[in-house]
Amino acid sequence: MQLQASVLAACMAAAAGAAAWLAVRWRQLKHTPALSETSRRAGIDGGYVQAGAFRMFYRFHRGPPDAADRAPVVLVHGLVISSRYMEPLAGVLGRRFRVFAPDLPGFGESARAPPARRRALSIAELADALHAWMHACGIERAMFIGNSFGCQILAEFAIRFPEAVERLVMQGPTTDPRARTLPIQVWRDLRNGRREQPRSPAPIGRIDYAKAGLPRAIATMRILIRDRIEERLPRVAAPTLVVTGTRDPVAPCAWAARAARLLPHGTLLIVDGGTHTLNYVYPHAFALLIAPFLCGDAQPVARDLENAR
Predict the structure, then answer these.
(1) In angstroms, rounded to a whole number, what is the distance separating the alpha carbons of residues 224 and 215?
(2) Which pLDDT score, from 0 to 100, does residue 116 have?
């Protein structure tokens, strides 16, 4: 009995130590600075604006001198993760365009919402916040690139504010109607994570999950799963490029093809070898492949990812 008690006490002590370490590490992640020296070397800066009820942080790249002659590009992040994982794509697109990447309310550096708004915002509320942020920044019209859950927000945004949208890129749009359950989504995310190693944005994800908090993360996952983007796509008037990769288990090719067909002005681009977060894992290839569409060519063709880098 004495031995069993000693073992139990040791296990409890180890568990308590692990919990204390995780709590300290969680606090450290929450206080990670918004921008790093790597960000600044890539030409990326950041700032805050008051967008309606929210104080929103955003990253931006000023682009070349002649970029002011073109509509800016706005990058919309995915589920729980912030615009931090959009930095690689912003750095590449910044060679030709002005690029902006906001943290939507509740995520990243925009996580400190007023007490009455600490709940997870709906897709419609996130779309409204994005529009308020544009107004605060003096952006009247833009081209938008969304990844994953960001595509769901952009579909709503394009319907509510069509005058603000020049064109859309939906990369890895969620949610595949055949995978509208939490276990399936988690399994697909895990499969994608294995395929993206060692370029995975998982370390950045841990920072952003800590900043958003687990209650908001879980509530937003439920919103993602319940939303029926396929019912809104036929109402999106802007030219839209749907992009997926042949190795993306989250937004597989069959679903992406259906999404493109549902759009009145939709075009499909299938990237051979592409995974779910092209914006982070293959930013140079992704930027190269969508550049013709951003510049006005609505007829891109499928390309091999490795040859495009």
Answers:
(1) 14
(2) 46
Q: How many CB atoms lie within 10 A of CB 180?
A: 15
Let me know: does 282 contact 78? Beta carbons within 8 Å: no
DSSP E strands, the chain? 44-51, 54-61, 73-76, 99-102, 142-147, 165-171, 240-245, 266-272, 303-304
Q: How many helices (H) and strands (E) does the chain have?
A: 12, 9
Query: What separation in angstroms does the CA of 49 have from each of 57, 75, 145, 289?
Result: 7, 17, 21, 32
Region label for 172, one of left (φ > 0), alpha (ψ between -120 and 50) or beta (otherwise)? left
Q: How do residues 118-159 score in pLDDT, each as one tens digit? A: 678 999 999 999 999 999 999 999 999 999 999 999 999 999
Structure tokens at 306: 């490795």
- Domains in the chain (CATH in brackets) are 25-308 (3.40.50.1820)
Only one residue has tokens 């916040």, namely: 129
Q: How many residues does the chain have?
A: 309
Which residues lie closer than 8 Å to 110 by C-beta, 6 or more apart? 54, 55, 56, 57, 82, 102, 103, 104
**DSSP assigned state of 227:** -
